[in-house]
Each structure stands twice: as C-alpha cells, then as structure tokens.
Amino acid sequence: MPSPTRLLALAALLRPLPSSRRARKVLPTKLPTTLPPPTPDNDLIAQTANQVDQKSAPPVDAPPNADVPPTSVTAIDGTVTNSTIDGVSASNSTRRRDVGRLGKRQSGFEKIFDGLPADQHDASIQGTAYLTYTVVNNATYNVQACLDWCADIDECVFVNVYYEFNNYLLDKVFGEHSNLKCAAYGDIHTEAEKLNFGGQQSYPQLGNETVPLTYITQSSGWGLPGIKEAVTPDGYDLVFGPTGGANNAPGYMGFAFIDQYDVAACAALCNGRGADPNGGGCAYFNIWRAVVDGVPTTYTCSMYYFVADESSAVNFGQGSLVVTLSRGYARKSALIDGGFEGYTGCDDFCFTDSYANWIGTSPSGGTPRRLDLLLPALRSHGPRIWTARLRLRCANYVVQCFMSSAYSGSQLEAPAKVDIMWNGMRVGGTSGFTEYTFVEASVVGTGSDELTFVGGAAPAWTFIDDCNVYKA
Ligand SMILES: *[C@@H]1O[C@H](CO)[C@@H](O)[C@H](O)[C@H]1NC(C)=O
Ligand SMILES: *[C@@H]1O[C@H](CO)[C@@H](O)[C@H](O)[C@H]1NC(C)=O
Ligand SMILES: *[C@@H]1O[C@H](CO)[C@@H](O)[C@H](O)[C@H]1NC(C)=O
Ligand SMILES: *[C@@H]1O[C@H](CO)[C@@H](O)[C@H](O)[C@H]1NC(C)=O
C-alpha cells in the first residue's frame, strides 16, 4: 500500500494524462485512503495472553533426552491454538532451526536460585519455553554435567536441576538409573516459578499397598548471561531493539503467540502471512516477550505491511503485563526501486524511456514511443515492456505489487493487461478493468534474474506501484 505521500502523488493524477486525451479520465475509485491503516489491538493481545498456558516442566512419564520440539504457535489473531509454524502459514517456511533463539552464551552460567535443604520438599520450575530434559549422574548433586549438556543445545539458556523421588520410570525402567533431573528452557526463570511440587502416582498399584507419590528436592536454577542477543533472520534487517516497548504502528496485520522467543519463527510467520488486500504482504514484524506479574508468559510476533521503527514502539504493557525484549525486523526487498521513486526527471508525471533502475523497451516491430509515464508509479500504456535486473540467490522468492487498470473507466480499461514476467516466463499479472489491487507471484531466483512488466492494450492504462521481491 502506498504511503500517504504516495497517495498524494497519485491524487495529483486526477488531472488528465497528456498522452491520452481521447479517454475519459477517472482515477481508481477505491484508493485505500478511506480507512486509516489498522494499529495493534493491544486489549486482544493482553486478553489472549491471559488465556494461553505456555508453562510446562518435564512430564513425570516422559523419557529423558527427547529432541527439542520445533517452536509452536499457541495463538493466532486472538484464537488459542497448538500448531506448527507451517500449519498457520500460507507458504512453506525455509527457516533454519539454529537461528533466532535468545542469544548464545558468551560466558558461563550463573546461579539464579538455590534449592532448599536436602531434607525439605521443594518444587521444580513450571515455566515457558521448556525444551527437553536429561538425567545426570546422581552420585553427587551434579550441576556441572547439567550445564555442559545445556551448552550443547542451541536454544538452551536456563536449566533447573532437582531430584525427583518415587518416579518409577527413573528408579526402575530408564537405563540411566538416576533421579537427578536436568530440565532445559529457552528463557530464564526465577524462584517464583517453582510451582511443580510433584505429588503424582508413578509406581504401579500392587494390591492395596499405599503407593508413594513423587516429590522434589534441591531444585536450583542456572542461567546464561547475554540472553539479550538474537540472530537476525535471513531476509530481514534489525530495525530496533531490544527495548521495553512494542510497536503501536499503522499497517498492523495481526499477531501470533509462539512458545519460545524465536526470531526466525516470527520471520517464517511473516513470510507465510497471507497478504492484506489493501496493504499487501507482511513487510515487518515486532517480536516481544510478555511478562505477567513478573513471570515470562508468552512471546508475541506482531506483523505489519508497513515498516515501523522505534519511534512507534511505545506500548510498554498494560495492567500486570509488561513488554520486554521487543525487537523490530524489516523484510528486505531484493528489488531496487520497486516504488519507482528513483526517477527524478521531473516533479510531476512525465515521460521517459528508461532510467537507472528500470529499462523500457518496445516489442520488436513496434515503434518506440515515449508513451510511458513515471512518477510516482510506473504506468504501462500500450505494448510497453519495463525490466529490472536482479541478482538473487538460488531460493524461492515472491514478487508483490499493486496495480490498477481503472484510470480510463471500465469500458476503455476492459482490454488492459499487464503480464509479470520472470526470466521470460509469465508468472502473474492483471487483466481487464481492475481497481487498485494487490498482485503477487511466486518465483525462483537463479542468480541472475529479470523481472519484467509487459503492458498492453492502449488506451487502457495500468498503474504499477510499490513492488517488492521478498525471499519466500
Ligand atoms: C500440541 O500438539 C502436540 C502434537 O499434537 C502435542 O504433542 C502437544 O502435547 C500439544 N501441546 C499442548 C499444549 O496441547
Ligand atoms: C509445503 O510443502 C509440502 C511438502 O514439501 C507440500 O506437500 C505442500 O504442498 C507445501 N505447501 C505449500 C502451501 O506450498
Ligand atoms: C539415584 O537415582 C536412582 C534411580 O532413581 C535411585 O535409585 C538412587 O537411590 C539415587 N541415588 C541417590 C544417591 O540419590
Ligand atoms: C490388604 O489386603 C490384604 C490381603 O490381600 C488384607 O489381609 C489386608 O487386611 C488389607 N489391608 C487393608 C488396609 O485393607
């Protein structure tokens, strides 16, 4: 969606175009100016944060050393769910598992809290971003073995070490023969989150004997400093953060909660987010951690079709919810000058054959005519071909543009068409009378690529604006 200044520029086109005096001139009637672009619904986000339960601990009956599960989505646009990233995305993500977690260790672990004395019952952590657990040799209170194990898990920034008694599987079944549990988390937790007191029946019932219930002792917590770093995901630039403010910016598309602070997962959600019909594709996301009553509760990805920055990152929380670790990331377009603003030949609309970023040609046999207008949008009038050359990595991309073939009215625009060509193949486009509309096409980068708009059918005009080529 064009920015307000671009819309002003489009409005300037209400004057007749000099090259098509024959046609009755009407601008697209449904320019997306009628409603202000949406901003986040912070009440809905806070309400949903109160509904999700992302806190967990090693289950009493789970074997140790399970793989760390992929980041999952716990709510989408206010609806609580339990899905994979791909499950809520319009396209398959290509994210790598090992990026985007909370920062990697620079130095060693620090003790966050001590366990209670060995002769007292204690409780283990029931917290967010639980990853997996192991058991370590219980001949001593073997914290170091637990820390060493955590250091080998990318996402692990915190461990909870404790004994669990009366667990039949630990005592009699699992080969490790140890009841000293070491639970890995992707976020730092505090003593206030010691909420799992055991009390479960794990031993089988034999006759009428009383079955001893599980209990926990010596539950300590150890965390990594430097948790505030994050790896910038492929296809994005860090815009700001971490700060204590979430964006309250226009162009909001919706939000997802995820079960870990996983920047790459937010990027995959933004990439896979369906386009907003007025605003276009996701161009920016804001990830932040919600801390409720002092306890990490969920991790939010808010998505936008406008790129925001720190100046609008002014939502610090509400009620008992505090915003922490807020970062903004802008999606990088591989297309140079997809808004055609690089042409500075005149202040008003004007004609050109080519300029630095776009090359205009006429089809073979056609008479080269100076028919095309630039500024602020590319206009394709008649059989005219506009090409940009890109150097892309071999990967999947998506071409996104806004187009309108409504200027000359429905009758004269009826034969309008624009083909989007990628390396000579038609991948999408518009045809016929169309109001301002979002158009996208999936393409594959080959290393040296050509994006071309082929216009046709004067006296129809198609306006092309705000094009991006994003990594899919
Ligand atoms: C979410 O779904 C997975 C797979 O079906 C399941 O293993 C997991 O326990 C579920 N989590 C919750 C919180 O329901
Ligand atoms: C995602 O990938 C799977 C397997 O690779 C494929 O079957 C499915 O059609 C893809 N979905 C989309 C939306 O591309
Ligand atoms: C170590 O764990 C095993 C298995 O749970 C248990 O039988 C044993 O008593 C534990 N040893 C100590 C010193 O806690
Ligand atoms: C438990 O069962 C045994 C025999 O099976 C019986 O003698 C005993 O009285 C029972 N004890 C209780 C407390 O019910």
**C-alpha termini separation:** 19 Å
Low-confidence spans: 1-32, 94-104, 367-371
Give the amount of beta strand, in percent.
35-45%
Shape: elongated
Protein name: Fruit-body specific protein a
Organism: Mycena venus
How is this fold's topology laid out?
Elements: H1 4-12, H2 42-51, E1 72-76, E2 79-84, E3 110-113, E4 124-125, E5 130-136, H3 143-151, E6 158-165, H4 168-173, E7 180-185, E8 194-196, E9 215-223, E10 236-243, E11 252-258, H5 263-272, E12 284-292, E13 295-304, E14 317-318, E15 321-331, E16 350-351, E17 359-361, E18 373-374, E19 378-381, E20 385-390, E21 396-405, H6 409-413, E22 417-422, E23 425-431, E24 434-444, E25 449-456, E26 461-471
Antiparallel strand pairs: 1-2, 1-11, 3-9, 4-8, 5-7, 6-7, 6-9, 10-15, 11-13, 12-13, 12-15, 14-15, 16-18, 17-20, 19-26, 20-25, 21-24, 21-26, 22-23, 22-25
Residues 138, 170-171, 177-179 line the site of one 2-acetamido-2-deoxy-beta-D-glucopyranose.
Region (Disordered): 23-44
Protein name: Fruit-body specific protein a
Organism: Mycena venus
Keywords:
Fruit-body specific protein a; binds 2-acetamido-2-deoxy-beta-D-glucopyranose; elongated; mainly beta; Jelly Rolls; 472 residues; disordered N terminus; eight-stranded antiparallel beta sheet; five-stranded antiparallel beta sheet; 35% strand; 6 helices
Could you characterize the architecture of this molecule?
With 472 residues, the chain is mainly beta. It folds into 3 domains: 4-34 and 336-471, Galactose-binding domain-like (Jelly Rolls, Sandwich), CATH 2.60.120; 42-49 and 233-331, no CATH class; 55-70 and 83-223, no CATH class. It is 10% helix and 35% strand. The chain has helices at residues 4-12, 42-51, 143-151, 168-173, 263-272, 409-413; strands at 72-76, 79-84, 110-113, 124-125, 130-136, 158-165, 180-185, 194-196, 215-223, 236-243, 252-258, 284-292, 295-304, 317-318, 321-331, 350-351, 359-361, 373-374, 378-381, 385-390, 396-405, 417-422, 425-431, 434-444, 449-456, 461-471. The longest helix is centred in the first third of the chain and has 10 residues, at 42-51. The relative contact order is 0.16. The model is unreliable at 1-32, 94-104 and 367-371 (pLDDT under 50). It binds 2-acetamido-2-deoxy-beta-D-glucopyranose (NAG) (4 copies).
